[in-house]
Prior knowledge:
With 197 residues, the protein is mainly alpha-helical. 77% of the residues lie in helices and 0% in strands.
Amino acid sequence: xxxxxxxxxxxxxxxxxxxxxxxxxxxxxxxxxxxxxxxxxxxxxxxxxxxxxxxxxxxxxxxxxxxxxxxxxxxxxxxxxxxxxxxxxxxxxxxxxxxxxxxxxxxxxxxxxxxxxxxxxxxxxxxxxxxxxxxxxxxxxxxxxxxxxxxxxxxxxxxxxxxxxxxxxxxxxxxxxxxxxxxxxxxxxxxxxxxxx
Length: 197
């Protein structure tokens, strides 16, 4: 029935607002990433959404383009949730108010985001290289370009910060790994020509 996925989508709206506005603290319980009520609820809703998407695909024989869009929506949503978990954890453990302006002003938070985004870009490019998916590789490369731009435009704004040094070194090492472990995937014809006889 179409009512189940529609109901799940309506449930995702208040969960999204809760993620944006709440820092995950549930006193007197201690804050633990992924093990607090907010993250548990969000994870449960995402699992329901993936399950409902599969049921829709099986019942209505959805086109491949629609299936691909549903999968990508799920992946992007999970990645955004991961970023919010990082921000909430920084707010809890570094004593920062869970507000965008306060979090953006923290060089430690900026370094965490740079490293997380760089690692995400490397993972995308590594998967794309192994699966010979050029479009996915370019998505990872675009994300890496955003990280490098952020390093120079945002992270350099602070002077003498150890977090800035760590982010620069970490992102640089990831870039070296891209060259060795996640090169631009060759087309099948190119790979067969390059392979030894």
